[in-house]
Amino acid sequence: MFSGTKINISEEAARCLLCYDAPCSNACGHGFRPDKAVRAVRFDNVISAASKINQNVCAECVGECERACIHYDFPVRIREIIRKLPQSKKCRADLSIEFCGVKCENPFFLSSSIVAANYDMIARAFDAGWGGAVFKTIGKYVVHEVSPRFDAIKKDATPFAGFKNLEQISEHTLEENLEVISRLKKDYPSKVIIASIMGQNEEEWTEIAELCEKAGADMIECNFSCPQMAADGMGSDVGQNPELVKLYTRCVKKKTTIPVLAKMTPNIEDMTVPAIKAIEGGADAIAAINTIKSITAVDLEKMQSLPDINGKSAVSGYSGKAVKPIALRFICDMAKCEKLKGIPLSGMGGIETWQDAAEFIALGCENIQVTTSVMQYGYRIVEDMISGLSEFMVTNGYTRLSDLVGKALGNIVPAEKLDRETIVYPIISKEKCIGCGRCYISCQDAGHQAIEFDQERIPKIKGAECAGCQLCSLVCPAGAISRSKRINRRRC
Ligand SMILES: Cc1cc2nc3c(=O)[nH]c(=O)nc-3n(C[C@H](O)[C@H](O)[C@H](O)COP(=O)(O)O)c2cc1C
After folding, report:
1. Of residues 226, 332, 433, 443, which has the active-site annotation?
2. What is the pTM of this model?
C-alpha cells in the first residue's frame, strides 16, 4: 500500500525530472504511463491525470515506477500523487477557432524561433498535436551566431524562471526555408503555417512575402521585434519606429493576399502606437510579445555578464515565465484600444500551461504561441494544454473557444475606478498555521504592524491596524491565511 508523509501533489510533481523515455513508465508492469500522470499534474492538468493510469490497480502495486525513478535526490512519490488524484473526467471540447479567417484545429502554435526551424521539428510538433507553427524568421540577411547564445534565471524547481537568448533569424538560406514551408503545407494540409519574415529594405520585405505566399504559407508574420539583430534598421529597430512599421507592412501587403500579422516589440512604452500603424499599413492581426531587452546577471568574479562570449556579452531578449505578466499587460492594452477594435490578436510570452494560454485568450487572444517552455520541456506539453483547456471549457459551459475570447477584459479598469471603500481581512487558520512567523515578519517590516503572536505561537490579526493589504497571505508558506468577505471600511 501507499506510504509516505502528507504531500502536496503539485509540489511533488514539480520535483519530477520529466525524463525522456521515462524509466518509471518503462518499469510499470501494468503498461500504464505514470510519467504522463505526474506530468499532467505538473502542468496544472490534474483533472485528466488519472486517465493515464488505473488508480485501483496502482493502489495495490508494489511501486516498480518509484523504484525505477532516477531522481538524483530521492524518488518522486508517484504512488502518493496517484492516490490523491481526483477521478479523471473525459472531456473533449471543440478547441477549433478561426484566426484571421483561417481555421485552426486548436489555438496552440509554436512561435517563430529555434523550436520551429526545420521540417523534421515542425512535423514532430504537428504529430504531437500543435495546431500550427510560425516558422523561424526567414530572410536574406546572413547571420553569424555566437556561442553560447542562451542564459537562464533559475529559481527553486523552475529551471527557467526567465530565459535570455542572442539568436537572430534563420541560419538556412531563403530558398531552403521556402522549400520546407512548401513540403510542410503539402504533408500537413490541415495544420496552419505562418511564415515569419524580415527584410532589410522595402524591396526585400515585398519579395520575401510574395515568395512565402507562393510556397504555400497560410499567413505571414512580420518580425518587427527581434531585439538582438547584429545590423541596424532590423528587428526591434523597426518596431520602435511606428512609421517604418507602417511602411514595411505596406510593402508586405503589396503583392500578397494572405493575412499578415505584425509582431510587436515590448521594448516600447505604448505598443498600441506601432500596432495602429501596422493596421494602417494593411496588417490583419497583431502578434505580441517578442522578447524583452535584458541583462540576466553579472558574474562578480569575472566582472562580465552572461552568456559569456569570450569574456563579453550583450543586451538581448528575455522570455519565459517571468515575462508573462508584461505580455498580458500589452495584450490587454491592445484589446482595449478603440482604434484596434476587432483586430485579431496572437499572444505569447511565458505560456507553459493551458491556464497561461486561457489567460491570454480571456484577455482577447484568438491564437497562442509558445517558445521557451517548448525549449525546456519539448513539444509534448501541448497534450496537457489541449486536455486542460478542454476540461475547463466543458466544466464552465463554453461550447466554442471563441466564447472565451476577451471574457476578462471588462474587469480590468483604470486604477482610479477601483473600489476603495471596502476591505478584505486575512483569516488565519489555527489548524494549518505552523507558527513560522513569516507573516509577522512581513507585516512588521513591510506592512502595518497588525499581527501579534498568542501564547501558542499562533499569529493573530489586530483588526484596527490591519489595512487588508494581504501581504501576510502571500508570504505564508503553509497556505494558512485565507481572506474574509469584503466588508465596508471602518471610518474614523
Ligand atoms: C531562442 C529564441 C529564438 C527566437 N527567435 C525568434 C525569431 O526568429 N523570430 C521571432 O519573431 N521571434 C523569435 N523569438 C521570440 C519568440 O518567438 C517569442 O516571441 C518570445 O520568446 C516570447 O515567448 P515565450 O516566452 O513563449 O518564449 C525567439 C525566442 C527565443 C527564446
Report:
1. 226
2. 0.95
